[in-house]
Amino acid sequence: MSLVIAAIGAKALYLLYAWLASAIISSYLSERKGYGEKPGLGTGLLLSVVGVLIWLVWPARADSRWKLQGAFGRGGSGKTVAEARAERSAGGDGS
Fold first, then answer.
1. What 8-state DSSP symbol labels residue 7?
2. What is the distance, to the nearest Å, from the Cα of residue 25 to the centroid of all Cα atoms in its chain?
């Protein structure tokens, strides 16, 4: 009887790729939604694919890139986050 160690190798490699991809995607989503990369990285590493689903339904902050530019890039109003924050603080002082 021989011990076959390589039989689990391909499955383990695919699971490792899925785990790392979910950490990358969760980190990207949390950063776009205005919470920084670390919370997304933590949820992606600890919860794997569930972490991605959590960040997809998590609400974005008001002046985040997700709200201003869309999910992937330059959409919406075309303003940067710094411009939106400056506009909001100037409007808040005048009111």
1. G
2. 5
| Closest to 17 (Cα-Cα) out of 54, 48, 50 | 48
Q: How far apart, in whole angstroms, are the C-alpha atoms of residue 34 and residue 61?
A: 6
pTM above 0.85, yes or no: no
| Enclosing H/E stretch for 53 | helix 49-57
Please name the residue that has the structure tokens 């902050």: 61
**Digit-coded pLDDT (tens) for 26-43:** 999 999 999 999 999 999
The answer to whether the CB of 19 falls within 8 A of the CB of 41 is no
For the cut 90, the answer to whether the pLDDT of residue 80 exceeds it is: no
Q: DSSP state, 60?
A: P
Quote the CA–CA distance of 30 and 40 in Å, as a whole number.
Answer: 5
